[in-house]
Amino acid sequence: NFLQYILLASIIWIGIYIRSRPLKNLIDATTGKYITVELDSTLWLRYARYISENGRLFDIDPLRFYPLGGNISDLGTFTSYFVAYLYKVLNFFMPSMTIEYADIIYPIISMAILSLFLFLLIRKLFNWKVALLTTLFLNVITSFLFRSLGGSSDHDILAAMFVVMAFYFYVSGWHS
Q1: Separation CA 112–CA 138 (nearest Å)
Q2: Contact 134, 122 (CB under 8 A)
Q3: What is the CA radius of gyration of the chain?
Q4: I want to staple 15 with a disulfide (CB 3.0 to 4.6 A). Which of 23, 24, 49, 139 is the partner?
């Protein structure tokens, strides 16, 4: 039983290692702060920064549909809240943490949690060998890599993490 946890930790470490490779290239030369990989992630970072400073997000974004502003109450902003509160938790333990760094490492943290719950789910449904193989495939498959890469703080990896967690809790509840 101890071997499966060592192998799982190795697989999660491999996934973290792969996804954290571009982090050193995501530093803005003009400001010295971390930047995101794509434009959607920049929007979620701007919202997360506002949430961390003010506690909640505004209803009308003045920078969307300028000069009138855009209503963002129907826009899915859960990712921004997740990043803002992840920043607050990480900042409590590491006071040097910035919101930008929390934003670019959030996909890596989410992928590690996703890997853990995927292993637990597949182990419960099949066995630990199949669970390890599934987790390894998910961690190294190239088609899934971009949306879980460090710096790509879009909502895809967060949704995948919560879906796998929901399946695990459903199957655990069903088995009990």
Answers
A1: 11
A2: yes
A3: 18
A4: 139
